[in-house]
Specification:
alpha/beta, Helix Hairpins, 2 domains, 7-stranded mixed beta sheet, two-stranded antiparallel sheet, 9 strands, globular, Diphthamide-biosynth_chaperone, J_dom_sf, J domain-containing protein, DnaJ_domain
Length: 310
């Protein structure tokens, strides 16, 4: 599977420059192994990442192949996944969740605007998703692409919930955090509750502390606070209350498949791995209120009358 646009390159993992010679690579590899080993304060995940980095650039042949592929951190070019995916034919006849809106649309547009501004308006960009171009871009631009991919992956996962669920994507709100757009990524309604969901990829692990997510990659963001404000904006307009606030991240960035971090204004807050999201919504978040059939219909009607898309 191609990596995230925020993933560290093998050179970054080894702690060397991209133009390091072979001796410098070997020294960096040894130092990185010592730092990453579980017996010296590292972790199995870090140790494995160092080993993968060495496989990718540790020999002249592997390094040449890595550089030829545009400095993608995966052995296969990531372009096909980073670019908008064409519709896939369905392989079964099961009814999907009703879905509205364009998941990842606004975030992709912000990425395209950002990459165009960074390159320069007078220069041609044959392919805005070229791995070599993406890897050179500033982190804040790569973060936009990573988030767009996360939103699209969440939408694919939520579509499998079945006809009892309704999903809205890219909802416009009156609330936004610093540097963040006024939109809620996803809103899901079904018998297990009303879920306000943000799809995120910060390129690093996050965890709960005192009802908020923390982690080095957050750079001061307060995701739960921002999500709560967005959900409140949607709920106030429709006169409904979300039963759960959920942040979904790539599997490797959450210690557990599902973590409950408390509640706010009657809504349970949770951090969920991407692979666990659909089952978490289908089964319900622990401690989150469920909805009766007539209540689901009433809430759906109110939302359909008030939802605006970003």
């Amino acid at each position: 599977m191609p990596d995230s646009p925020l993933s560290a390159s093998p050179y970054e993992v080894l702690g060397v420059r991209a133009d390091a010679n072979l001796d410098e690579l070997r020294q960096g590899y040894r130092r990185a192994l010592r730092r990453a080993h579980p017996d010296t304060g590292g972790s199995t995940a870090q140790f494995d990442a160092v080993q993968r980095a060495w496989v990718q650039v540790g020999t002249p042949e592997a390094r040449a192949e890595f550089d030829r592929r545009g400095r993608s951190a995966s052995p296969e070019p990531a372009h096909e996944t980073w670019a908008p995916a064409p519709p896939r034919p369905r392989r079964d006849s099961r009814p999907l969740a009703r879905s509205y809106g364009h998941p990842g649309g606004l975030t992709r547009q912000r990425y395209l605007d950002g990459i165009r501004e960074w390159v320069g308006y007078g220069d041609e960009i044959p392919d805005p998703y070229d791995p070599a171009l993406v890897r050179r871009a500033p982190r804040e631009i790569r973060h936009l692409l990573a988030d767009a991919l996360a939103e699209e992956a969440t939408a694919r996962s939520l579509s499998t919930l079945g006809i009892a669920f309704t999903v809205w994507h890219d909802l416009a709100t009156d609330a936004a955090g610093p540097g963040l757009p006024p939109k809620l990524d996803h809103l899901v309604l079904g018998p297990t509750g009303l879920f306000a969901i943000q799809s995120e990829d910060w390129g690093g692990p996050v965890r709960f502390r005192r009802g908020e997510l923390i982690g080095e990659a957050l750079a001061g963001e307060r995701p739960i606070r921002a999500l709560a404000a967005r959900a409140k904006s949607i709920g106030r307009a429709a006169r409904v209350k979300p039963t759960a606030l959920v942040v979904v991240v790539p599997d490797e960035f959450a210690d557990e498949p599902l973590q409950v971090g408390g509640s706010t204004r009657g809504a349970v807050i949770a951090l969920v791995r991407a692979s666990r999201l659909a089952s978490a919504v289908f089964e319900g978040i622990p401690g989150s209120a469920q909805l009766g059939g007539s209540e689901v219909m009433e809430v759906r009607t109110r939302l359909q009358q008030t939802v605006r898309f970003a």
